[in-house]
Amino acid sequence: MVQFLQSSVGIIHKSHAESIASFVKDNVVRELKEESEVPVMQPAKDRRITFCVEGNISVGKSTFLQKIANETVELRDLVEIVPEPVSKWQDVGPNHFNILGAFYAEPQRYAYTFQNYVFVTRLMQEKESCGGMKPLRLVERSIFSDRMVFVRAVHEANWLNGMELSIYDSWFDPVLSSLPGLIPDGFIYLRATPDTCHKRMMLRSRSEEGSVTLQYLQDLHEKHECWLLPSQHGDHRLLSASQLPYSMDHSLHPDIKDRVFYLEGSRVHSSIQKVPALVLDCEPNIDFSWDIEAKRKYALQVAKFFGFVKKLKEVSPSQNIDAKAKNPQILLPHSGGVFLHDGSHFSESGLKPLTL
Q: Where's the Deoxynucleoside kinase domain (predicted)?
């Protein structure tokens, strides 16, 4: 697999390729062992829920996770928080290379390297956090926002060329298929205007972000909106919760009824089709250290969304088959190819770039 990663995927350093190969191998062995010990279909009520918290740069994700998810009575005993691994991006290898800073300083040179490393660190993060005991896991961003927002943005800016995009996509689906834990049960979209995000970014003054422009934030905002919000132009890639069948809709609390949407359509990756998303308004500048009522209001919305998704899985078990049954298990590459659990060759379509 090391040779495959170096020759076909484009990972230059052998040590990086060996690390990825070892990680994938360990997970494949573990999941194959689990398949032999337990039925493929697990009762939905026995699985904990994972939400990915999405949003633009400086929208307030860290504040949301710390002040709302970690400090409120409604959520603190319910959730495990998995913050974005920014510290790993700022300190890579024995020479402590800051790949995040390098990307912002020279995006055309480091865009692919950075996005590649971001993907690897999310795999590592999944391995580290998958065994938690709390019923709700909140993960800051996901491989899907990486692909649908940030990779797309750097490609359109010509910082990531077509060949590099094809290489990225060629292992996105196979790795995702082997690690279904990367697929969340829902998304929480923290929404604010690019102007507001830009002002907050200036206030926090993270050294690497000095070169980030308002135009870049506007571009990222547009891509988040395109991915996570209903279209206003007739492209119904999302279904609002009000369009859900009555058997599902009755469990959605009125306070979030107009804030929950189902992702669906050609612009949404196949693995997250019909995954629900909760949209929270983060435009107001609220001091959550003092405004206890506002903090509680946000926490209650998340708690109600959690209850909705949990109930959804319990009442619709046939639609919530374990991802390992929906996504064929990927085995290690052999002779330059990728093979499925049954020995057949992986579909060529799975190695083509995602359609945006």
A: 51-297
Q: Match 């002779």 to its residue by tokens.
A: 335
Given a contact cutoff of 8 angstroms between Cβ atoms, the answer to whether 246 and 258 are in contact is: no
- Element (DSSP H or E) covering residue 276: strand 276-281
Cα dihedral 237→242→245→251 (10° resolution): 120
Between CA 286 and CA 94 the distance in angstroms is 40
Catalytic residue from among 54, 74, 84, 140: 140
Is residue 331 within 8 A of residue 339, CB to CB? The reply is yes
Taking the C-alpha atoms of residue 277 and residue 68, their distance in angstroms, rounded to an integer, is 18
Is position 84 annotated as part of the catalytic site?
no
Q: How far apart are the first and last CA of the chain?
A: 29
Q: What's the rounded Cα separation, in Å, for the pair 120 and 126?
A: 10
Q: Which residues pair with 53 in a beta bridge?
A: 140, 188
If 0-12 CB within 10 Å is exposed, 13-18 middle and 19+ buried, where does residue 220 land? buried
Q: Which is nearest to 146 in space by CA: 176, 122, 124, 166?
A: 122
Burial label for 349, CB within 10 Å (0-12, 13-18, 19+), is exposed
∠ CA 211-209-142, nearest 5°, is 125
**Two tokens at 202?**
């200036």
Amino acid at the residue 102: A
Is 90 exposed, middle or buried, given 0-12, 13-18 or 19+ CB atoms closer than 10 A?
A: middle
pLDDT tens per residue across all 356 residues of the chain: 667 666 666 667 777 767 777 777 776 666 666 555 544 444 333 578 999 999 999 999 999 999 999 899 999 899 999 999 999 999 999 999 999 999 999 999 999 999 999 999 999 999 999 888 899 999 999 999 999 999 999 999 999 999 999 999 998 999 999 898 999 999 999 999 999 999 999 998 888 898 899 999 999 999 999 998 865 444 434 444 444 444 445 567 888 988 998 898 877 899 999 999 999 999 999 888 889 999 999 999 999 999 999 988 887 654 544 444 444 333 333 333 333 333 343 344 333 333 33
